[in-house]
Amino acid sequence: MLAQTKPTMPSGVSRATAPLIRVVDDEPAIQSLFERIGQLCGFEVDCHGTAKSFLDAFDGERAGCLVIDLMLPDRSGIEVLQEVTERGCELPVVFMSGMARVSEAVQALKLGSIDFVEKPFDVQQIAEVLRRAVDIDLQRRRQDEDLAGVRRRFDSLTRRETQVMEQIVRGAANKEVAAKLGLSHKTVEVHRANVMRKTQAGSLAELVRMHVAAQADEPQS
Protein backbone atom coordinates (compact mmCIF):
# COMPACT_ATOMS: atom_id res chain seq x y z
CA MET A 1 0.00 0.00 0.00
CA LEU A 2 1.25 3.46 -0.84
CA ALA A 3 2.04 5.79 2.02
CA GLN A 4 0.12 9.06 2.02
CA THR A 5 2.96 11.51 1.61
CA LYS A 6 3.16 14.91 0.01
CA PRO A 7 4.46 15.02 -3.58
CA THR A 8 8.21 15.51 -3.66
CA MET A 9 9.26 17.55 -6.68
CA PRO A 10 12.80 17.14 -8.00
CA SER A 11 15.08 20.04 -7.11
CA GLY A 12 14.63 23.03 -9.42
CA VAL A 13 11.48 21.66 -11.09
CA SER A 14 8.13 23.46 -10.93
CA ARG A 15 4.71 21.85 -11.18
CA ALA A 16 4.28 23.34 -14.68
CA THR A 17 7.38 21.54 -15.87
CA ALA A 18 7.02 18.32 -13.86
CA PRO A 19 9.03 15.44 -15.35
CA LEU A 20 7.05 13.01 -17.48
CA ILE A 21 7.18 9.29 -16.78
CA ARG A 22 6.29 7.41 -19.98
CA VAL A 23 5.00 3.94 -19.11
CA VAL A 24 4.55 1.20 -21.71
CA ASP A 25 2.67 -1.74 -20.17
CA ASP A 26 -0.59 -3.47 -21.14
CA GLU A 27 -1.73 -4.23 -17.57
CA PRO A 28 -4.33 -1.67 -16.33
CA ALA A 29 -3.34 -2.35 -12.71
CA ILE A 30 0.30 -1.48 -13.44
CA GLN A 31 -0.73 1.68 -15.27
CA SER A 32 -2.89 2.75 -12.33
CA LEU A 33 -0.07 2.03 -9.92
CA PHE A 34 2.35 4.23 -11.85
CA GLU A 35 -0.21 7.02 -12.05
CA ARG A 36 -0.55 6.89 -8.26
CA ILE A 37 3.22 6.84 -7.77
CA GLY A 38 3.46 9.82 -10.11
CA GLN A 39 0.99 11.77 -7.98
CA LEU A 40 2.96 11.04 -4.84
CA CYS A 41 6.36 11.82 -6.38
CA GLY A 42 5.29 14.96 -8.25
CA PHE A 43 5.64 13.43 -11.73
CA GLU A 44 3.21 13.36 -14.59
CA VAL A 45 2.57 9.91 -16.04
CA ASP A 46 1.66 8.98 -19.62
CA CYS A 47 0.64 5.33 -20.03
CA HIS A 48 0.45 3.26 -23.21
CA GLY A 49 -0.76 -0.32 -23.56
CA THR A 50 1.06 -1.14 -26.80
CA ALA A 51 4.37 -0.37 -28.44
CA LYS A 52 2.57 1.17 -31.43
CA SER A 53 0.56 3.57 -29.28
CA PHE A 54 3.69 4.68 -27.47
CA LEU A 55 5.88 5.03 -30.55
CA ASP A 56 3.19 6.93 -32.49
CA ALA A 57 2.97 9.50 -29.67
CA PHE A 58 6.59 9.50 -28.56
CA ASP A 59 8.35 12.81 -28.00
CA GLY A 60 11.53 12.88 -25.95
CA GLU A 61 11.74 16.65 -25.53
CA ARG A 62 10.30 16.71 -22.03
CA ALA A 63 12.45 15.66 -19.09
CA GLY A 64 11.66 12.37 -17.40
CA CYS A 65 12.22 8.71 -18.22
CA LEU A 66 10.81 5.64 -19.94
CA VAL A 67 9.43 2.59 -18.13
CA ILE A 68 8.94 -0.32 -20.54
CA ASP A 69 7.58 -3.80 -19.96
CA LEU A 70 9.75 -6.43 -21.60
CA MET A 71 6.78 -8.31 -23.10
CA LEU A 72 4.20 -6.16 -24.89
CA PRO A 73 1.23 -7.36 -26.97
CA ASP A 74 2.65 -6.23 -30.31
CA ARG A 75 6.44 -5.97 -29.86
CA SER A 76 9.14 -6.67 -27.30
CA GLY A 77 10.37 -3.95 -24.97
CA ILE A 78 13.86 -4.48 -26.37
CA GLU A 79 12.60 -3.59 -29.86
CA VAL A 80 10.92 -0.47 -28.47
CA LEU A 81 14.17 0.63 -26.83
CA GLN A 82 16.09 -0.01 -30.05
CA GLU A 83 13.66 2.13 -32.05
CA VAL A 84 13.62 5.11 -29.70
CA THR A 85 17.42 4.93 -29.50
CA GLU A 86 17.59 5.11 -33.30
CA ARG A 87 15.38 8.22 -33.09
CA GLY A 88 18.00 9.84 -30.86
CA CYS A 89 16.25 9.35 -27.53
CA GLU A 90 18.52 9.97 -24.53
CA LEU A 91 15.92 9.46 -21.81
CA PRO A 92 16.86 7.02 -19.04
CA VAL A 93 15.06 3.69 -19.48
CA VAL A 94 13.78 1.30 -16.82
CA PHE A 95 12.66 -2.18 -17.85
CA MET A 96 10.20 -4.31 -15.92
CA SER A 97 9.02 -7.87 -16.36
CA GLY A 98 7.34 -10.70 -14.51
CA MET A 99 9.05 -13.49 -16.40
CA ALA A 100 12.33 -12.25 -17.81
CA ARG A 101 15.25 -14.48 -18.55
CA VAL A 102 18.67 -13.42 -17.32
CA SER A 103 19.83 -13.04 -20.93
CA GLU A 104 17.01 -10.56 -21.61
CA ALA A 105 17.86 -8.50 -18.55
CA VAL A 106 21.51 -8.42 -19.60
CA GLN A 107 20.55 -7.35 -23.14
CA ALA A 108 18.38 -4.54 -21.79
CA LEU A 109 21.22 -3.25 -19.62
CA LYS A 110 23.67 -3.45 -22.51
CA LEU A 111 21.30 -1.36 -24.62
CA GLY A 112 21.48 1.38 -22.01
CA SER A 113 18.64 0.82 -19.56
CA ILE A 114 19.57 2.03 -16.08
CA ASP A 115 17.60 -0.60 -14.17
CA PHE A 116 15.60 -3.80 -14.51
CA VAL A 117 12.74 -4.34 -12.07
CA GLU A 118 11.02 -7.66 -11.58
CA LYS A 119 7.25 -7.85 -11.06
CA PRO A 120 5.68 -7.82 -8.59
CA PHE A 121 7.84 -4.96 -7.39
CA ASP A 122 7.94 -3.03 -4.17
CA VAL A 123 6.29 0.37 -4.54
CA GLN A 124 8.97 2.22 -2.60
CA GLN A 125 11.60 0.50 -4.72
CA ILE A 126 10.08 1.60 -8.03
CA ALA A 127 9.51 5.12 -6.68
CA GLU A 128 13.22 5.38 -5.86
CA VAL A 129 14.12 4.00 -9.29
CA LEU A 130 11.95 6.66 -10.95
CA ARG A 131 13.47 9.45 -8.87
CA ARG A 132 16.97 8.29 -9.78
CA ALA A 133 16.08 8.06 -13.48
CA VAL A 134 14.60 11.57 -13.47
CA ASP A 135 17.62 12.96 -11.62
CA ILE A 136 19.91 11.39 -14.25
CA ASP A 137 17.91 13.01 -17.06
CA LEU A 138 17.77 16.43 -15.39
CA GLN A 139 21.52 16.35 -14.79
CA ARG A 140 22.17 15.40 -18.43
CA ARG A 141 19.98 18.25 -19.63
CA ARG A 142 21.75 20.74 -17.38
CA GLN A 143 25.11 19.56 -18.68
CA ASP A 144 23.86 19.86 -22.27
CA GLU A 145 22.67 23.41 -21.58
CA ASP A 146 26.00 24.33 -19.97
CA LEU A 147 27.93 22.91 -22.91
CA ALA A 148 25.71 24.71 -25.40
CA GLY A 149 26.43 27.95 -23.52
CA VAL A 150 30.17 27.31 -23.71
CA ARG A 151 29.97 26.73 -27.44
CA ARG A 152 27.97 29.92 -27.97
CA ARG A 153 30.64 31.88 -26.11
CA PHE A 154 33.39 30.23 -28.15
CA ASP A 155 31.48 31.04 -31.34
CA SER A 156 31.46 34.72 -30.34
CA LEU A 157 35.27 34.85 -30.65
CA THR A 158 36.83 36.36 -33.73
CA ARG A 159 39.05 34.20 -35.92
CA ARG A 160 42.19 35.75 -34.41
CA GLU A 161 40.89 35.39 -30.84
CA THR A 162 40.19 31.71 -31.55
CA GLN A 163 43.74 31.25 -32.83
CA VAL A 164 45.11 32.85 -29.68
CA MET A 165 42.87 30.70 -27.50
CA GLU A 166 43.99 27.51 -29.24
CA GLN A 167 47.58 28.40 -28.39
CA ILE A 168 47.10 29.40 -24.77
CA VAL A 169 45.02 26.32 -23.86
CA ARG A 170 48.01 24.27 -25.03
CA GLY A 171 50.17 26.08 -22.51
CA ALA A 172 51.88 28.63 -24.77
CA ALA A 173 53.04 31.85 -23.12
CA ASN A 174 52.12 35.22 -24.66
CA LYS A 175 55.62 35.58 -26.14
CA GLU A 176 55.31 32.15 -27.81
CA VAL A 177 51.83 32.97 -29.14
CA ALA A 178 53.11 36.24 -30.57
CA ALA A 179 55.96 34.46 -32.38
CA LYS A 180 53.69 31.69 -33.64
CA LEU A 181 51.02 34.01 -35.04
CA GLY A 182 53.26 36.88 -36.09
CA LEU A 183 51.70 39.35 -33.65
CA SER A 184 53.08 41.85 -31.18
CA HIS A 185 53.16 40.93 -27.50
CA LYS A 186 50.68 43.72 -26.74
CA THR A 187 48.24 42.50 -29.41
CA VAL A 188 48.32 38.99 -27.94
CA GLU A 189 47.58 40.42 -24.50
CA VAL A 190 44.53 42.25 -25.89
CA HIS A 191 43.26 39.13 -27.67
CA ARG A 192 43.84 37.03 -24.58
CA ALA A 193 41.86 39.46 -22.44
CA ASN A 194 39.03 39.38 -24.98
CA VAL A 195 39.04 35.59 -24.94
CA MET A 196 38.73 35.49 -21.15
CA ARG A 197 35.98 38.11 -21.15
CA LYS A 198 33.90 36.59 -23.95
CA THR A 199 34.16 33.02 -22.70
CA GLN A 200 33.53 34.14 -19.09
CA ALA A 201 36.40 31.94 -17.94
CA GLY A 202 37.57 32.91 -14.47
CA SER A 203 41.04 31.48 -14.98
CA LEU A 204 43.23 29.79 -17.53
CA ALA A 205 42.48 26.43 -15.88
CA GLU A 206 38.75 27.02 -16.31
CA LEU A 207 39.24 28.01 -19.96
CA VAL A 208 41.16 24.78 -20.54
CA ARG A 209 38.37 22.72 -18.93
CA MET A 210 35.76 24.46 -21.07
CA HIS A 211 37.82 23.91 -24.21
CA VAL A 212 38.35 20.20 -23.43
CA ALA A 213 34.63 19.69 -22.76
CA ALA A 214 33.60 21.40 -26.00
CA GLN A 215 36.15 19.47 -28.05
CA ALA A 216 35.33 16.09 -26.47
CA ASP A 217 31.62 16.35 -27.28
CA GLU A 218 32.03 17.47 -30.88
CA PRO A 219 30.79 14.99 -33.53
CA GLN A 220 33.57 12.97 -35.12
CA SER A 221 34.12 13.93 -38.77
Specify the biggest β-sheet.
5 strands, parallel
Structural class of the secondary elements? alpha/beta
CATH superfamily of the largest domain: Response regulator
According to CATH, what is the class of the largest domain?
Alpha Beta
Strand order of the largest sheet: 2-1-3-4-5
What's the helical proportion of residues? Answer: 40-55%
Q: Low-confidence segments, ≥5 residues, pLDDT <50?
A: 1-15
The secondary-structure element order is EHEHEHEHEHHHHH
Mean pLDDT: 87
Instruction: Report how far the terminal alpha carbons are from each other.
Output: 53 Å
Number of strands: 5
How many helices in DSSP terms?
A: 9
Q: What portion of the residues fall into strands of 2 or more residues?
A: 5-15%
Give the total of domains. Answer: 2
Indicate the overall shape: elongated
* CATH architecture annotation of the largest domain: 3-Layer(aba) Sandwich
- Using the CA coordinates, give the radius of gyration: 24 Å
In short:
With 221 residues, the chain is of the alpha/beta class. It has nine helices and five strands.
Structure description:
- The chain has helices spanning 28-41, 51-57, 77-86, 102-110, 123-155, 159-168, 174-181, 185-199, 204-216; strands at residues 20-24, 44-48, 64-69, 93-97, 115-118.
- It has 221 residues and is α/β, with parallel strands linked by helices.
- A 5-stranded parallel beta sheet has the order 2-1-3-4-5, with helices on both faces.
- Residues 1-15 have low confidence and may be disordered.
Spell out the key features of this protein.
Arc Repressor Mutant, subunit A, 9 helices, 221 residues, five-stranded parallel beta sheet, 2 domains, Rossmann fold, alpha/beta
